[in-house]
Amino acid sequence: MRDLRVSVTDRCNFRCLYCLPETEEAANFYRTRFDAIKNPIPIKSTAIHREWKPKSELLTYEEITRVVRVAAGLGINKVRVTGGEPLLRQGIETLVGALTRIPGISDVAMTTNGALFQSKAVALRQAGLHRVSFSMDSLDRENFRKMTGRDGLDQVLSGLRLARELGFSPVKVNAVIIRGINDHEIPALAAFARTESLSLRFIEFMPLDSSRSWQKDLVVKGREILQMLHRDFDLAAIDSSANPSETARRWTFGEGGGEIGIIAPVSEPFCGHCNRLRLTADGKLRTCLFSHDEHDLKPFLRGGGTDQDLAETLADRVRHKEKGHRIGHADFKQPARSMSCIGG
Ligand code: SAM
Ligand code: SF4
To answer: Which of the four pLDDT bands, split at 50, 70 and 90, describes residue 50?
Structure first.
């Protein structure tokens, strides 16, 4: 295990339909065409409970820093700050700064929806953040609004351009592709990566949405995405054999900058190579996105546990890491918490 993903909040200012949909229409996007903006109907009930965790249950920055320090002592060298929306957490640059100073941590990154990035960019850069990934599933204002529940495309575009200007490197873009929703935008998203010299990752839709609307027919398989791209682009594969835990298969464009990657956890699982651990905002350790067991670290952190206790718990959980997710198998069960709670 080398990579720890730290969720700092379960709250979010977006309502992506594949993660935390806000309206009945958005939750049922696969059944009907809808216009969530003109006629929003609040969700009456969702399969996964959607109330925010009380702030007292969220780990403090000191507690998070302590877990990362102990994890670094066991071999973790990469940390990604995520959420929910990490930029909603007050003073997030303070945490970023503290994480970059932990001996053994060589890489601190952040995943954000980008809506608040412009106001935080300089502080984050000064705190030592080098890498940032933006989520942007559409280049079409209306489709972006439909997918995220917010009219935020311009803010995200300005945020990611600012990230480049400030020297964040690499600036990555994540796009979750859903059949019938944004698969027609795959070539345009790739062209955007080329002209803007960005790393764009196409991600398969995973069964981690709060409304449990996921169906396998909605997944555009990585293979299909690649076929589509080969029609329009002259792609050259990047050899990542030196880094077996890399989740994306990647390609550069024959001409121009940028690169694209495909992350296909549903159709081409990479569980055997996974080197990631997750810490949820409320202090639960997860060894897989699809874990059904979470291990609560708060009793150690708040009950006088020593660093040694914490290290033993981390090591023990890793020893029991799941062999793989069961998506596509008859016994597959979606985890109780959605991606926004787990930390993507
Ligand atoms: N709010 C931030 C953002 O959207 O970038 C960080 C948290 S979000 C949970 C992290 C990543 O998870 C995003 O890139 C998002 O697109 C991805 N994600 C969320 N739900 C997903 C799903 N059901 N399938 C695949 N990816 C998902
Ligand atoms: Fe929020 Fe990120 Fe989930 Fe979208 S994917 S709802 S931005 S946590």
So the answer is: low
Domain boundaries, the chain: 3-342
Q: Give the model's pLDDT for residue 273.
A: 85
Does 19 sit in the ligand 2 pocket, CB within 6 Å? yes
Give the rounded percent of residues in the chain with a pLDDT score beyond 70: 94
Q: How far is the CA of 309 from the centre of ligand 1 (A)?
A: 32
The least confident of 15-29, 130-144, 199-213, 252-266 is 15-29
209 CB within 6 A, ligand 1: yes
The answer to whether 204 touches 222, Cβ cutoff 8 Å, is yes
Question: Tokens 């198998």 appear where?
Answer: 329
User: Which ligand 1 atom is the nearest neighbour of the CA of 208?
Assistant: 23
Give the type of residue at 278. R
Would you state the CATH architecture of domain 3-342?
Answer: Alpha-Beta Barrel (3.20)
Q: Cβ(283) to ligand 2 under 6 A?
A: no
Q: Check if the beta carbon of residue 336 is closer than 8 Å to that of residue 210.
A: no
Is the pLDDT assigned to residue 41 strictly greater than 70?
no
| SS3 of the chain: helix, strand, coil, percent, to 5 | 35, 15, 50
Burial 265-282 (b: 16+ CB within 10 A, else e): bbbeebeeebbbbbbbbb
pLDDT of residue 292: 83
State if residue 16 touches ligand 2 by the CB under 6 angstroms criterion. Answer: yes
